[in-house]
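User: Structure please.
Assistant: Input sequence and predicted structure:
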Amino acid sequence: MPELPEVEALKDFLTEHLVGHEFVRVLPVAISVLKTYDPPPTALEGHEVVAVHRHGKFLDVETADGPHFVTHLARAGWLHWKDRLPDGPPRPGKGPLALRVALETGEGFDLTEAGTQKRLAVYVVADPQEVPGIARLGPDPLADDFDETRFAALLKDERRRLKGALRDQTLIAGVGNAYSDEILHAAKMSPFKLASSLTPAETHTLHEALRTTLEEAVERSRGVAAGRLKAEKKSGLRVHGRTGRPCPVCGDTIREVSFSDSSLQYCPTCQTGGKPLADRRMSKLLK
């Protein structure tokens, strides 16, 4: 799933390639991708792109005197830039193509989604705050005002475990499954530690790990072409997706806890005092 660093890189990429150009065609291929219908996607056509924004994991393409094109790539969606779009309209079918955007230059991009769970979302709205997911977002962790004091206030009464708290978009915008694993590994904290139990020193450590991990990932992704961002993300991960491999810090074996629809990875030596976590839902430290 694209998370804050990859979406930030896509925002920069699209700023370079879209701003100053005009939407001439917006062609939905999979009807499931459209989450709004008024105004219709055709309302974007004929309008020049003036800016591209990021809201958490949402991309927001702003047009002059027209609506915003907002998309969330979800778990299996992606954006594919085309220097030259294929001739003729795309054909609906069982393939991954969900929507195509064409510019006046003949360039454009496709939104695709792999798998059968169709969660890729496109909204055409007058104001991005009309998108429910954006309206509910918590603060951006890379914002200048996201300091340690604000972070501590968010966690003060948070009774969930750190893993769940970091992934909650209404608490902090943009962090998903992969980077929450990376942040907790950098902070040397168990994913099942209660957020409200952090001492001031631990809060400082976690805040620093959060900012540093995301800033470094954004920097690695900066300037990378859209088609290579997934590989760039994977190459920079230390624990997420590395089950069974050695921890790059201590050499211990990376372990996994699986849930019904996701999994987390961690290093026992670095994060849980050498104790493995039980691999079952509602896991607790083995005693």
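Residues 200-221 form the longest helix (22 residues).
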